[in-house]
Amino acid sequence: MTDFLKVKCLSEAEEKKLVDDIEARIAAKKKDGLLTDREVREIQEMRLHPLPDIQDVQSVYENHLYTSKD
Q1: Which pLDDT value is given to residue 3?
Q2: Residue 63 class from Cβ within 10 Å (0-12 exposed, 13-18 middle, 19+ buried)?
Q3: Rounded distance, CA 10 to CA 51, Å?
């Protein structure tokens, strides 16, 4: 598997450890018969979309929260 994950706040070593852990978990699930190679490929090809509540985050903050009370 190629590197599929980029996390800006992690160091390169931490990111590598996380990717290795994910790959180990996937391998274990394939070994146990919980995932097939086809299912793993389908998951890899999925396009991710932000959660709806994350998309609406600007509507959460009201202007009165950021104005001074003077």
Answers
A1: 63
A2: exposed
A3: 22
pLDDT tens figures, 31-68: 999 999 999 999 888 887 766 665 555 555 666 556 66
3-state SS class at 10: coil
Query: Does 21 have pLDDT greater than 80?
Result: yes
| Identity of residue 44 | Q
What residue ranges in the chain does DSSP mark as E strands?
Answer: none
Beta-carbon contacts of residue 2 (< 8 Å; ≥ 6 apart): none
| Cβ neighbours of residue 29 closer than 8 Å, sequence gap 6 or more | 35
